[in-house]
Amino acid sequence: MNKKLDAFHLKVIAIVAMLLNHIGSGFKLYEYSDQLFFFTEFIGKLTFPIMAYLLVEGFHYTRNIKKYATRLAFFWIISIYPFHMLFYPDHPFSATELVNNIFFTLLMGLILITLYDKTENTAEHILLVIGFSFATVMSDWNLIGVLIIFGFYRIQNPNFKKIIPPVYAAGFLFLLLLIAYLISPSSVPWYELVSVLGILGTIPLLLHYNGQRGYSPNWVKWGFYLFYPLHMVILIIIRGML
User: Fold this and answer.
1) Which of 182, 220, 191 lies closest to 44, judged by CA?
2) What is the DSSP string of 120-131?
3) 116 phi and psi angles, rounded to 5 deg
4) Nearest-angstrom CA–CA distance, 164 and 190
């Protein structure tokens, strides 16, 4: 297989998918077009698995895990308010109403695999996975996000590790929504049920990843982090103007 995608290409795909997804959700496109909203949701499902895979790559290659974790924590904190205002503008900004953003989920995943790497006891391993999964209950990509990260870390086969986590993530979310749909069809629109299959689109992208960092000057490295809170602020301003 001719692998032409490097980490830079994957990051660009991830942030474009994220932008489309956040436009769809932030501007409530489902009120205007189910098909258009489905498109933004389907494409948006590419974002987290790509970020999760690159997080694990960063874990293996970084020289300073503490700096890596601190960077994630910093952008989690500065993104808390923009994330809340974009997706939960009608809810009070308080600890009881707070839903954490994607950087919190990534941070929990990084801490999990760091601690897992330093322990050998099976019982401790199980407790770590369960504990850090439930730590993201009130977070973007709750529960399953940390398990995607763990799968990318734990599975050793270079091809299987790119296939299995997206498959079980898509399967879990689809089954969850299917059960909700069967119980109350009106509570789960068709596009929510089908859009989770967009996660599977990550598989060919990761299989074409060549393991190279690609174009990565400092402004690009920090720009990808800064894009997250900045694009949400811009979308909030545009929405307010409209």
Assistant:
1) 191
2) --HHHHHHHHHH
3) -60, -40
4) 25
The answer to whether 153 touches 113, Cβ cutoff 8 Å, is yes
Paired tokens of 10: 């994957």
Residues 193, 174 contacting (CB under 8 angstroms): yes
Distance CA 2, CA 128 (A): 37
Tally of structural domains, the chain: 1
Q: Is residue 1 part of a domain?
A: no
Dihedral in degrees, nearest 10, Cα atoms 33, 144, 78, 23: -10
- pLDDT by residue (tens digit) across 131-142? 999 999 999 999
Any domain includes 143: yes
Q: What angle do CA 171, 173, 175 make, to 5 degrees?
A: 65
Rounded to an integer, what distance in angstroms lies between the CA atom of residue 195 and that of residue 187?
15
Instruction: Give the per-residue pLDDT at 95.
Output: 66
Q: In degrees rounded to 5, what are phi and psi of residue 134?
A: -75, -15
Domain span including residue 235: 7-241
Q: Which long-range contacts (CB under 8 A, 24 or more apart) does 93-102 make?
A: 98/138, 99/138, 99/139, 99/140, 100/76, 100/136, 100/138, 100/139, 100/140, 101/76, 101/139, 101/140, 101/228, 102/47, 102/48, 102/51, 102/139, 102/140, 102/141, 102/145, 102/228
For 100, the token pair is 């954490």
Taking 80 as the threshold, does the pLDDT of residue 96 lie above it? Answer: no
